[in-house]
Design brief:
Helices cover 24% and strands 21% of the residues. It is an alpha+beta fold and 108 residues long. Strands 3-2-1-4 form a four-stranded antiparallel beta sheet.
């Protein structure tokens, strides 16, 4: 770090063992209203027609934008180190898209 840059104070964050294990998700449903974004992390398994929401995160619009910026920065650094991440188009059939929450719905 350069001498002329200020150091940010360290964040004091607790991570329980249960949460540290994480939850596997291979599909995300993103919806929003005027005041919040909702991200449902889903696990879809081969041969099972119904996915299961494993975690739901609710964010204020400002935090959703910060999350997108942080993900973009991390993806860029990842690809700088390990190469471009390929994206397979057409994995999810159109008839499996979820219903909205009052605003447009996206998937990841």
């Amino acid at each position: 770090m350069e001498d002329n840059q200020e150091q940010s104070p360290a964040l004091d964050i607790e991570l329980s063992e249960e949460i540290a294990e994480g939850i596997y998700s291979n599909f995300a449903i993103i919806t929003h209203s005027q005041t919040e974004f909702v991200i449902d992390f889903v696990r879809m398994m081969p041969g099972i027609p119904k996915g299961k929401v494993k975690s739901r995160i609710i964010l204020a619009p400002q935090h959703a934008k910060r999350l997108i910026m942080a993900l973009g920065d991390n993806l860029s650094r990842y690809e700088d180190n390990f190469g471009e991440i390929p994206i397979e188009e057409g994995i999810m059939p159109h008839n499996m898209l979820p219903l909205g929450f009052g605003g447009p719905t996206g998937q990841a």
